[in-house]
Structure formats: C-alpha cells, structure tokens
Design goal:
The protein is of the alpha+beta class and about 575 residues long. The chain has helices spanning about 5-15, 20, 55-75, 100-105, 110-120, 290, 295-305, 325, 335-345, 355-380, 405-430, 445-450, 455, 470-475, 515-520, 530-560; strands at about 30, 80-95, 95, 135, 140, 150-170, 170-175, 175-180, 185-190, 200-205, 230-235, 250-265, 275, 280-285, 380, 390-405, 480-485, 490-495, 505. Helix content is about 30%, strand content about 25%. About 25% of the residues are buried.
C-alpha cells in the first residue's frame, strides 16, 4: 500500500527557500503526471529520500515503529495468569494433645461417628488430618491473616501415623469350632462361624465385653497380646456343611504407631493437608505411647463403648450400627464396627477380601481413619502466648494476576531503543542543518494562511468527493511554474500557470535574505517538539515515571508482594 504524505509539506518545501528547493527555481511540473514525484512512499522510507531529506526519513521511520510495532505489541506485553508468592515466616504449633491422664474420659465412642461421616457420607477429614497421617495444628506467629483460599503454610512438623503388621493365623477346625493362633502364645478356641448372607467379615479384638460374641482375651491369650486382633473372611459358597469352610482367610494383626518429622504443607483456610514429604521423613525419639493412650483407643475399636468402669452420657452408650450398609453389600451380621469402616473404605469387591493382603489393607485403612479422628478429637487449641515448637516455615499464595510476557517486552524495548536513537539522530540533524524558518510550518495558523490563498485554491477547488484519480485527471493538461523573487530584501514566490501571464503572488512572511545571511541576531524558529522547554518537560515526565516504577519495584521486592498492614 502506497501511503502518500500530504502535498502541503512538499509545497512548503518549495515556498520556503532552502538548498534543495533552490534547485527548482524555474522547474515546471505537471500536477497530473508528476504529482507522485513529490510524494514519499513508505516502501522506501528507510532509504535516503529524494534530495537527501534525512529528517523526513527518520521521522517516518519513527512513525512506522510506533504505529506498526509498539502499538500492536504493547497490548500483548501483559497477559492474565497466576503467580505464586513465597514469604519466609516463623511457624509455631498452635494446639496440643490432651494429657494422658484425661484421654480415657475425653476420648469416647463419639469419635466413631466422625469416622462414619467420613467413610460413608463423604465428609472431609478434620483440619490437619488425612487418611494417612495426623499432626498437631500450626500457624504463623504473625497475626497477619491469610489473603486468599489458596494460601498454604509449609514447615517441618511431627506427623503421627499408624499401620498394621499382619501374619497368617494358624487355623485348626474341630467339631466345637475353629481354633486360631498367632504362633506367639495367643490362641483362641471354639470360634463358630455362620454365614447368613453371601460373605462373612469379622474383626475380633482383644478386650472382652458382654456386647461381644467373640474376643481374644482369655487364659490362652494373655495381656501381652492386648494389641492383637483377628481378621477373618469367608463366603457362603465355600461352606462344607459341617460348619467348616473350604476357603477361609484368617490373619492376626497388631497396630504399629510412629512419629516422624516431615516437611508438611497445609491449606491456610481449612487446614487440609496438601502434601507431606514421606520420602524425607525422619523418625523421632518420641514414642506415640507417651502422648497417646493406644490401649484405650484399641479398646474402643474392639468394643465400641466406653469401659464399664466409666460413667458416660446415654448417647455414648449406644453402639454405632452399620448393619444397613453391610447388608446392602451382602455382608453377614452381627459384626464389629471396624468391619463397617473396612468395607466402606474398600476399593474392590467383597470377594477380593479372600486375599490376605487385601484383607490387611482394608482394615489398615479403617484403622488409620479412626486414628486420625481420635487425634482430632483429643486436640485442644493453645493460647497465642503458649505456642510451642517455633520453627521456620514458608507462606505461599497463588493468585490471579497480570503478568509480563518477557519475549514480547524485549521486542518492544528494542523498538523503543531504536526509536530513541532515531529521535536523537533527528534532533542532531535538525540542529546541524541551517534553518531559514521564521515561523512554524506545522502550526494551524501557517497552514490556514497557506490553504486560504485564493490564487492556489482557485485551480484546486473541488467538492468533498475529490479523489487522487479525479485530481490527476483534472490537472493532467495544466502546467504550473514557480518563480523565486528577491525584492526589497524580502523573498517572494510567484506561482503562475502556462495560460496566465500575470499569475498570482504568494507573499512569504520571512525575514530578508540579507538579514538571514549577514545578521548573527537571527534565531530560526524551531518546531514545538524541538524546543528546549518541550524537551525538558518531556524528559522530566519520563524521569518521574521511571522513578515511580523503581520505587514500586523496590517496595514490591522488600515486601515480597505482600500488602503492608498496620
């Protein structure tokens, strides 16, 4: 596309005496055929223009860079995205477990209701607990509130966990029932199994109680095995008719509790454990038995009620009934509560429980779930003055923001640098070249005085529908001449056509030629953009903007993106 500059600057070049224009004193040109000779084409804007008009070339190149590079790309420098802020901070434990002396009364069967809500109803885990681990709540020492729902707190913390160590049971069938032994001195005789529905899953704990059909406690299984339980699985299809079963899975398991140090990340809003680095976890010297009553916990798992020696409110004397959920899955009843949790958390069909590993895995999940619920129940909040175990941590916050696309910004910065170089070159050339301007040709007054001359507009008068083609055709056979006259020390240009002998005179209100050449007091008129006052103000605005941006950058780096709060 050929973009033509207005012919007014070109005519101005001819009206105002200058070396290039002086060469055209008596040159005749046809506006119909030679009009394009006074136009500058954008395709050649970077080349030396006619008559070595470097100022026009540099100004045009700057315009191209501004409108074709800076303008379309500047809107692409910033794009919406997400940013993550990290702020080092001190983090302290804000809660503690209740004393061992009070845990037997504080931890009752109600914590199983919490486990029921999580396993069967899909309720989320309590804060600072998960299906694998539990830990004491912590928070930054600073009282600064979290800024969004995505903020996380990360630090090294003690994590409490449990698991099951299981071994196949030694099984012997007699007419009175099955006898199971763990091979280490715990033997349970006379266990009769009756499969009412399709499958039978049993959890037989150690402690005895009147509500239980079977338990391990007895003369053949002493107190040293109080942390053992027996898990059984069989199916109705494997019954042999005499009370025995062709396919019977029996394992003895004992819980294992441990405390490890690991790098943990939790959500600041709800305490959900986002991650814990088990790979880098290290065991601690502390024992779980010193801070958590494991015997009481295992008693509640096996019996489902508080010990008979303790008084309890009526709701705590009711055993949690999961029979409807078990019957829906063809599991026979009666059964222990832990069976319901194991089935609820089971990811595979009931017949797969015949595999000892899957049977152990199901009860291990149930054990971990109830352990997390028990730790959450026994946790009590500390006052801010009594926070414990202060250690370094990190607060992170991910939020939506406007981010800079660095590749595009580099292109824009390079274009701006080139524009600066070209602008200084234009200023230098404009300062070095001799100027005879005694008025600003870019001012509105000068343009109005030029286009308002009837001598010129008489031959160029058309309606508002004039196009370049119409102009070329209408002036194809018209020839104009410009004469340069120097009369009484003033410069005049006379424009006359071929058919007009008198022509029309255009007065140039410039200083006398002799004064321009001989008087040192003459000061050429500079365009507004090249004047010192305009340039100083423009540079001052740039320096001020750069100072503000630098200040904001320093503040952002100092506060690490945080808003300063009182």
């Amino acid at each position: 596309m050929n973009v033509y500059f207005s012919n007014i600057p070109s005519i101005s070049c001819l009206l105002y005496p200058s070396p290039p224009c002086a060469e055209s004193k008596s040159h005749l040109f046809n506006l119909g055929t030679d009009l394009e000779s006074i136009f500058f084409l954008f395709e050649f804007i970077l080349l030396t223009p006619p008559s070595r008009h470097w100022a026009v070339s540099l100004a045009g190149t700057v315009m191209l860079l501004v409108f074709w590079v800076i303008t379309p790309l500047q809107s692409s420098i910033f794009n919406p995205g997400t940013v993550t802020r990290s702020l080092p901070t001190d983090i302290a434990t804000s809660a503690a477990l209740r004393p061992m002396s009070s845990q037997q009364t504080e931890l009752d069967a109600n914590f199983m209701n919490l486990g029921y809500s999580i396993s069967w109803l899909g309720q989320p885990f309590p804060p600072f607990t998960s299906e694998e681990v539990a830990l004491l709540p912590f928070q930054p020492i600073s009282s600064t509130p979290y800024s969004s729902t995505t903020e996380t707190w990360s630090t090294i913390s003690d994590i409490y966990s449990t698991d099951l160590d299981c071994n196949p049971a030694y099984v012997e069938y007699k007419p009175d029932g099955y006898t199971f032994s763990n091979g280490r001195g715990c033997l349970v005789p006379d266990i009769t199994l009756e499969v009412i529905n399709e499958y039978l899953v049993l959890y037989i704990g150690y402690y005895s109680n009147a509500v239980l059909d079977w338990y391990l406690q007895g003369p053949n299984c002493t107190q040293e095995h109080s942390n053992n339980f027996l898990a059984l699985f069989t199916s109705k299809s494997s019954a042999l008719g005499d009370g025995s079963y062709a396919n019977l899975t029996a394992i003895f398991c004992q819980p294992r509790y441990q405390i490890n140090e690991a790098y943990v990340t939790v959500n600041a809003l709800n305490g959900t454990i986002a991650s814990n680095d088990q790979v880098l976890s290290q065991p601690t010297s502390a024992s779980m038995g010193d801070i958590f009553n494991t015997s009481h916990f295992e008693y509640l798992l096996g019996v489902g009620l508080q010990p008979d020696t303790q008084r309890a409110d009526y709701p705590n004397t009711i055993i949690l009934d999961q029979t409807p959920q078990l019957l829906a899955r063809n599991i026979s009843w009666p059964s222990n509560n832990l069976v319901g949790f194991a089935v609820a958390l089971n990811e595979f069909p009931a017949p797969d429980l015949a595999d000892p590993n899957l049977l152990r895995q199901s009860f291990a999940r149930a054990h971990k779930l109830l352990f997390s619920a028990a730790i959450s129940t026994l946790t009590t909040t500390l006052n801010t003055n009594t926070f414990e175990n202060t250690r370094p941590g990190i607060r992170k916050d991910t939020s939506t923001a406007i981010i800079m696309v660095r590749k595009i910004s580099i292109v824009v910065e390079a274009a701006l640098a080139l524009i600066i170089i070209l602008t200084f070159s234009l200023w230098y050339i404009s300062q070095r070249r001799p100027s005879c301007l005694d008025r600003d040709p870019a001012s509105i007054m000068d343009v109005m005085s030029m286009v308002g001359n009837d001598a010129i507009l008489g031959d160029l008068h058309y309606d508002e529908f004039l196009t370049s083609t119409t102009l070329s055709q209408s002036l194809m056979h018209t020839t104009f001449a410009i004469e340069f006259l120097n009369s009484d020390g003033k410069s005049d240009l006379r424009l006359k056509s071929k058919s007009s002998a008198a022509g029309s005179v255009i007065r140039v209100t410039s200083a006398p030629q002799t004064a321009k050449r001989n008087s040192r007091s003459f000061t050429p008129i500079q365009p507004l953009e090249f004047r010192s006052s305009f340039g100083s103000g423009f540079v001052g605005v740039i320096i001020l903007a750069a100072g503000i941006i630098l200040f904001l950058q320093i503040r952002s780096t100092t506060l690490n993106g945080e808003q300063k709060r009182k």
